[in-house]
């Protein structure tokens, strides 16, 4: 991917010329390719995303309590959600990677895709302000935000509630494996409830693996 083609892609994404093109290139640059990489912009974009989604949910669901709004927010700003949107946009093909990261599959890493999505939001915030960032986020997240009539219940909370309602001991989560290169770590977690069952799952973070394991166990006992 040439720098010119990457700039064209970013212009098409945000719908206007770039004022600070170097910021967007930084947002798509992995640490394996340059010391001037995406992580600081990802830090900023994460906060901007949380603010915009939080404001949106506050307006969209005026009668929901804080707990339900928080459940919606946590799911919408999760690394998995950001990575899903990044994949839909084709961010993997735009990444600037060092050879090792490219060979290790960083362009399809949930961690890297999610972080670079947030980095692009951070770059857009600096390039055009909150309103430009809000416009992009609302366009990209519209289906996820408005498509759920009910606040999602986190699988770990649902499993905990199931155990309590059925007079069982609380679920126990154990990290059983951690592997892969730094930019594409994979975590395997096993969750068990004594005298009920257990399930294992793998994810890009310990939290993601725990969530997936809880979901799998819920499916087994439903």
TrEMBL record:
Origin species: Sphingobium subterraneum
Residue ranges of domain DRBM in the record: 154-222
Subunit structure as annotated in this protein's UniProt entry: Homodimer.
UniProt GO cellular component terms: cytoplasm
Similarity-based family: Belongs to the ribonuclease III family.
Known EC number: 3.1.26.3
Organism domain of life: Bacteria
CDD domains linked: DSRM_RNAse_III_family, RIBOc
Molecular function per GO: double-stranded RNA binding; metal ion binding; ribonuclease III activity; rRNA binding
Cofactor(s) of this protein: Mg(2+)
InterPro entries named in the record: dsRBD_dom, RNase_III, RNase_III_dom, RNase_III_sf
Residues the entry annotates as binding Mg(2+): 42, 115, 118
Protein name per Swiss-Prot or TrEMBL: Ribonuclease 3
Residues annotated as catalytic: 46, 118
Assigned keywords, A-Z: Cytoplasm, Endonuclease, Hydrolase, Magnesium, Metal-binding, mRNA processing, Nuclease, RNA-binding, rRNA processing, rRNA-binding, tRNA processing
Stored HAMAP family: RNase_III (MF_00104)
RNase III domain mapped to chain residues: 23-129
Gene3D superfamilies: 3.30.160.20, Ribonuclease III domain
Gene Ontology biological process terms, A to Z: mRNA processing; regulation of gene expression; rRNA processing; tRNA processing
Location within or outside the cell: Cytoplasm
PANTHER family assigned to the protein according to its UniProt record, in alphabetical order: RIBONUCLEASE 3, RIBONUCLEASE III
Reactions performed catalytically: Endonucleolytic cleavage to 5'-phosphomonoester
Organism ancestry: Bacteria, Pseudomonadati, Pseudomonadota, Alphaproteobacteria, Sphingomonadales
Family annotation (PROSITE patterns): DS_RBD (PS50137), RNASE_3_1 (PS00517), RNASE_3_2 (PS50142)
Encoding gene, per UniProt annotation: rnc
Its job: Digests double-stranded RNA. Involved in the processing of primary rRNA transcript to yield the immediate precursors to the large and small rRNAs (23S and 16S). Processes some mRNAs, and tRNAs when they are encoded in the rRNA operon. Processes pre-crRNA and tracrRNA of type II CRISPR loci if present in the organism.
